[in-house]
Amino acid sequence: MLAAVIGALALSVVTPVVAVAAPAPVEYANLGDSYSAGSGVLPLVPGAPLQCARSQNNFSHIVAARRGYRLTDASCGSARTADFFGPQAGVAGTQAQLNAVRPTTAIVTVMMGGNDSGTFGGTLQACIRAALTTPGVADPCRRQYGQSLIAPIAARTQPALTRGLRAVRAKAPRARIFVVGYPSVFPRSGNCSGGFLIAPGDTPYVRSVADALNLAVRRSAEAVGATFVDMAPASVGHTACTSPGVRYVEPILGTTQLIPAHPNARGERAIATQVLAAINRR
Length: 282
What we know:
It comes from Williamsia phyllosphaerae. Pfam families: Lipase_GDSL_2. By secondary structure, the protein is α/β, with parallel strands linked by helices. The protein is built from nine helices and five strands; from the N terminus they run H-E-H-H-E-E-H-H-H-E-H-E-H-H. The chain has helices spanning about 1-15, 35, 60-65, 120-135, 140-145, 150-170, 205-225, 230-235, 265-280; strands at about 25-30, 70-75, 105-110, 175-180, 225-230. A five-stranded parallel sheet has the order 2-1-3-4-5, sandwiched between helices. Strand 4 (about 175-180), helix 7 and strand 5 (about 225-230) form a beta-alpha-beta unit. Helix 4 runs antiparallel to helix 7. The longest helix is centred in the middle third of the chain and has 21 residues, at about 150-170. The radius of gyration is 24 Å and the shape is globular.
């Protein structure tokens, strides 16, 4: 009996313990322009191209940290849909943003389209110029440009973005793709034209350009079976017209960060919250 007990004890001592390997982290790729990169929000990602102004606190870094994802962030300020497919013109150290996507990528976020045809920056510049050159006119930008700033969005931006999203789908067929809309800069009623140097009557016009852009982004997402993350409802009460402690997007005059007319840290956190909610719903 004693020998049997000793033998059992000896066997228990030499029996190897099999270690269980931890699961590999979920691979996550973030693509997009300055709103995706968090341009203007400090600190910047070390080693990233300086012109990209890629923030360590952009929404993709927040999502990755909260979910334990392994992030490859290819977002870059001033990026256009053409930059899905090749290095960004004039920005040394960049490569095709699609290179961040691999067959094993499980989550992809994309926030892109606002720079195509100069939609975002070009509209603000045009409306500021119209206000300065035609003082006393309530809505000089709308009168001068009409549909010319809106028409290229459906005609060129939407098909270009759809093409880029199809390429993402082809590279990572099993990935869940989340296409993020742009947060509202201006409220639905009233205006904060003074913060952007545009004429008061042009606030609705600039909003209409932004609405057309978000509609194109939504339709591109739907065309490839991606999830559209709508930031417009989440922006209510947090536009650039509100106070510094409330707003998600900075104005031009009175901005609290280096790059105006872009999401601040609060805005990037708000985008992350909506992306996480979308991930959790599926």
